[in-house]
């Protein structure tokens, strides 16, 4: 039984060493891709920030004109420039 246990342990060690070697080789080969991944993540963060920065102001969803001085009706705010009816958001209230 002792001899069989040693064979099992040796087989387990070979499988683990092969897996570790494969993982190390893949990680080493992918090392030049790390700056590309970092640049992509930074670019996506800047794009999301740029797109969502318009959400905190009251702007027309069609042309981007400011809607602050306009009054809210039952259907929303009509844009003075393009005529698009902007539905009321969470911050808009009927006065």
Q: How would you describe the overall organization of this protein?
A:
This protein has 95 residues and is mainly alpha-helical. Helix content is 49%, strand content 4%. It has two helices and two strands; from the N terminus they run H-H-E-E. Strands 1-2 form a two-stranded antiparallel ribbon. Strand 1 and strand 2 form a beta hairpin. It is rod-shaped, with a radius of gyration of 30 Å.
Structural class: mainly alpha
Distance between the termini: 86 Å
Count of β-strands:
2
* Spatial sequence of strands, sheet with the most strands: 1-2
Total number of helices: 2
Beta content comes to under 5%
The helix fraction, in percent, is 40-55%
Oligomer status: single chain
Rg, Å, rounded: 30 Å
In short:
The protein has 2 helices and 2 strands. It has helices at 2-29, 34-52, and strands spanning 77-78, 85-86.
């Amino acid at each position: 039984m002792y001899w069989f246990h040693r064979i099992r342990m040796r087989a387990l060690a070979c499988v683990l060493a092969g897996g570790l070697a494969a993982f190390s080789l893949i990680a080493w080969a992918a090392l030049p891709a790390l700056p590309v991944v970092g640049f992509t993540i930074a670019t996506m963060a800047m794009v999301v920030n740029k797109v969502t920065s318009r959400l905190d102001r009251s702007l027309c969803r069609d042309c981007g004109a400011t809607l602050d001085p306009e009054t809210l009706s039952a259907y929303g705010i009509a844009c003075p420039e393009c005529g698009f009816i902007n539905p009321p958001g969470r911050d808009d209230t009927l006065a």
